[in-house]
Structures are given as structure tokens and as C-alpha cells.
Amino acid sequence: MEPLKFGVTVGRGAAVGADAKRAEDLGFDSVWVGEHVVWRHPMYDGLMLLAAAAMTTKRILLGTSILLLPLKHPVLVSKAVTTLDHLSNGRAVLGVGIGGEYPKEFNAMGIRREERGPRTNEAMQLMKRLWTEPSVTFNGRFFQLNDVGLEPHPIQKPHPPMLVGGRRGSLKRTALYGDGWMPYMYTPEMYRDDLKQIEEIASAAGRDPSKLWRTLYVFTSVADKYEQAAQWATTALGTNYAQDFNKLVHKYPLVGTPQQVAERMQQFIDAGVRYFIFAPVGQWLQDGTTRRLMPISISVKNVPDDVAEKLRQRAARNHRSLQGEVLQILEQAASGRPVEKRLTVEEASQRIKALGIKTGDDATRLIREMRDSR
Prior knowledge:
This protein is α/β, with parallel strands linked by helices. Helix content is 47%, strand content 16%. The chain has two domains: 5-319, Alpha-Beta Barrel (TIM Barrel), CATH 3.20.20.30; 323-372, no CATH class.
């Protein structure tokens, strides 16, 4: 059986290099960044962040999770990914998706939202040719090229892996054009059923389904108590997606104590997942969650005991109980005690920053939400 692998999302602007190096030191196999051209809150360009991460790391893969391919011209994306592959000495991975949940960014780019699926299919086929052929002539519905060659080609042969993100609408795209599958908001049962469909479609098209990456992009919140983890996930995801996650948080993310998260991971492994991409929820809690994820991953990974113990020791040296400390500070700022005895928002932010966590607006927003709910 293919060995399990583990990646984690990073991407806090100028901190991305340090975050990626920390993930590499903890033993992760890859780091990933998401992006939107226009979104509900500020976001950076994913490939530029990964270029910065390439400068601080030597081993881990560098992937997009995901790049919205229909919003960009495939010739420029091909050139950018090739550049990243050379900067990182062959560590680039391109996760693509069609987006669509935020129509404003399609309007901003002058792209018709209803064309995002076929536009992505065409772009994926064109990019693989640009990466592997000396000259490309292409007459598609959306893109036309006449004798175009992009040099240099990527270091990875035949090209950097191209994974397909999304939900059930992405199955055929994955089977026909992708090098792997990266769904999100999935249950183990959904994963098992849809993976079977992908394998059947790929086989019918003459492709070998065993060579496809079987990844899962999964929002993750780990705490000493399930209720704490669920609260953090509900607040962070609800803010990010502008919807109520009180019911969804128990269905899709990895949420709970380390033991509960490990047990849920095993269910996904049994369903066919071989590569977890953890997305710690709540930017100001990412450091603490990331440190806790490697020991959990080791607990479900089939590795020799001596290797596992070395990794556990390394992870333990980097782990502090940051989430517990942060929660105590938040409680002191948001509790129902008299106002004059509370920490101010500014005092709470300074104490959290002293733990080495860049809070930004997230801690301030959560403190105020906690106060309003009491």
C-alpha cells in the first residue's frame, strides 16, 4: 500500500517562509497555499507565496490548494509554475479548481462564471502540452496558440503534478485530465464512493487510476476538549465562508482531541485517502494546531517504531500548549467579569503575540464575538 503523507497549509504573507520552514522541521511532506483574486478578506497570490517558501526550505513539496485556473491564462500559469519548479529544484505541485462561490472575482476578471468548468478542462490540457512539447499549436474554444514554445520546461518529468480540487463536480475532470484528486468538505463515505467513480472513469479512458494522488484537503481544529476545537472551527469557518457552520463542523472537518482526530483520520484512510492536507482553522491558532498535527499523524502512519519515536521527539521539542494559553487569554478578555477587570482587546492581542503568534484581526474579532455572545 502507498505510504501515508501529510501536508499543511501556510500563507500568512511575509511569514510564509518561516511557516514553511517550521513545517519542514516538524516533518511534514508538503506545504500548501490557497488563493482568490477577490475574496471576503485579504489574500495573497499563491504562487508568489510558494516562491518565498522555496527560499527557506529544501525538502518539502510546495503546492497550491487551490489555484483558480479559469481566472488565469494557462500560458502565464505554465510559465509561473515552471519558474517555481526551478526555484525549488523540482518541488512544485499545482492544485487547480474552478471556484465560483464568489462571483465578484469572475466579474473582476471578465470571465463568465458558467464557463469556468470547460475553460479549466481546456487549460489543463494545454498546460501539459506546453510543459512537455517544444512547440504547441492549439485551437480550442477559449485558447488559441500557433507554434508557441515555453522554455525552460519544468524540472519534474513529465511535468509538475496537477491535482484537481473541488467537490463532486470535479470527478470527471480528475479522471480525464488530473494527476490526482484533492476534494474538500467530504465525509469518509463520500470519499470512498467518489473515488470509485474516478477510478472507473479513468480506466474507461485508458488511464491508470493507481497513479492518481489520493489527497484530502481538510479543515482541522485540535484542542484538549472537543467543545473547544468545535468552537474554534465554527467561528473561523463561519467567518471565512459567511455561513453558519454549527452543524457542518461535526460533519466535514477534523475536529476534537488528538485521539478523536486520529480516529477520524483512520476512517478516511480506510476510505482511500493516502495524503492529508491539513488546513488549521483560525489564523491565530495555526502555530499551535500545526505543532499538534505531526504527532497525531505519526499515530496513524505505518512507520517503523524507531523512526516514529525520533519524529515524536522532534515534534515534542517544538510543541507548546499554545491553544490552551491563547484560550485563557481570550477568556480573560471576553468573560462576563466586570469591565474594569477584563483584559482590553489590545492587552489580549499583545499577550497572544508574546507567545509568537501573529494575530492580525482574527483575535480581535473573536474576542468581540465572544463578548457579544455572553
